[in-house]
Write a structure and sequence with these properties.
With 68 residues, the chain is mostly helical. It has one helix at 2-56. Helices cover 81% and strands 0% of the residues.
Amino acid sequence: MDDLIKKLEEQITFLQHEISQMSEELYSQQKEIENQKKEILQIKSKIISLEENTNKYDSKNDPLPPHY
């Protein structure tokens, strides 16, 4: 009976350690995902800004540069 209890305690300890490691990894991945979302939003904002600036250019109203 004592051996069984000891084995169960060892398994519990092992599982607690594994759960702790998984939790740390999950936390790390969540932080990384948050950072990537922020970067994506920044990139989207830059793209929108560039598109707006590109749309402001109207080739019909702007003269050709002198080298043409």
